[in-house]
Design goal:
Shape of chain A: elongated
Radius of gyration of chain A: 23 Å
Structural class of chain A: mainly alpha
Order of helices and strands of chain A: HHHHHH
Number of helices of chain A: 6
Radius of gyration of chain B: 18 Å
Helix content of chain B: over 70%
Distance between the termini of chain B: 21 Å
Number of strands of chain B: 0
Helix content of chain A: over 70%
Number of domains of chain B: 1
Order of helices and strands of chain B: HHHHHHHH
Largest interface: A-B, 30 and 32 residues
Structural class of chain B: mainly alpha
Distance between the termini of chain A: 53 Å
Largest sheet of chain A: none
Oligomer: heterodimer
Number of helices of chain B: 8
Amino acid sequence: MKRHGLTITGAISAVTLVLTAILGIAITPPDVTQKEYARFLYLHPPMAWVAYLAFGVAALSSILYLWPRTRRPFFDYLALASVESGVLFTGLVLATGSMWAEPVWGTYWVWDARLTATALMFVMFLGYLAIRRMGGTAEQIARRGAIVALISSINVPIVHFSVLWWNTLHQGPSVLTPGLSSQGVHGAMAWTMLLSFVAFTTLFVWMILRRIRLEQLRSGVGVGVLDAAIAARVAEGDAVEVSA
Amino acid sequence: MLRDAWAIMTKDLRIEMRARVGLWQVLPFAAISLILFSFALGPKASTLAQGAAGMTWVGVLFATFLVVGRSQSLEMGTGVSEAQRLAGVDPAGMFLGKTAAVGIQLLAIELLLGLGAKLLLHFAIERFWILIVSSILATIGLAAVGTLYGALVAGARARETLLPMLVLPVLIPVLISAVRCWQAASVSSGLAIGEWLSILATFAVVYLAAGILLYGQVQESQ
């Protein structure tokens, strides 16, 4: 059943990604003002959504790990998988944003609120990956990671408001406003954009499912190897006793 | 909790008074950083005055790592943490005590850097109360986050590099808000400070609460 779920998610993701690419490159028209650069609309916003979703999942699973009653290794694996995907997608958001901004805004980078907040979020969660490499037992690593993920997530709204008041230039939200039709995204472009959100969200789900499975196998291998080593050592002792 | 916090704070400050690491290492470092910034920006009085608040707070941020590193090294002695656990020291009290001790040392550094900014960088002080309130709120935030992360990386081999990497992005709201408040304090009227003070206050409350709730978990991960 689990394997079926993984295969189905992967298949949906692959099909929707290919469809998004075809619709985004060949079918949808270029924008009146942004010309061909408007096609970043099918990459940048869904990636940003997935990045925020990933860090939200990481925060939630970290709380569940830190709460003694719900503490399970699964929540640590989920947080790790989400942060890894989140950092990847945040990096891609910053890269695609810069590629789009150069021709449209005339610069690769501006110290705008959303850009700055996203860059800081990227660095904060890189810290999560760094602290997991500090070493220690699996439980120590998991606990430290959960604390850092939680603190970083709490900081996201504070960072957002501080940099918002500090400097703002970014264009208004394209999607999360009432009435999609009243915005600048219309017809085929709106549908392609919607499809891209489905494609990247299912890609994210597939990635974290794979990553959780990998982490489960890795921890299982660790335990198995240790048990085997102990058994071998005990057997060695028994053999010495017998020969003596 | 508060009794434990008081005991830990007085213990840390007493050690600092005797060892004088802060006096002979951290304060000179903070002063040197202020002078370095002045050399980087050039001798023009107006440029220095304009950047004074920013330079001072970057100096405070750098000094925070030294103070936090020193604060945590006191706990790393052989058997210290075990003795504290056996004595039943409340983790929340421990966090508050260490945060208070770090905060008091940081306030002393801010006082020195503020004086340096006034004398060397021509920083004008028009509204003293803004300076005081914002510095206290910012210091609580810096000390709380520093103490929490300091304890988290206390056992790491590369903690000197890991601590700034983890803490600096988290402290950006404090840096922005404190600098804006100090800039507002240098003019008699005009610049609004309501939102900046609210960010500093929110940051301080959120991270004090996070530290009180999470410090026990941090100790268990050491």
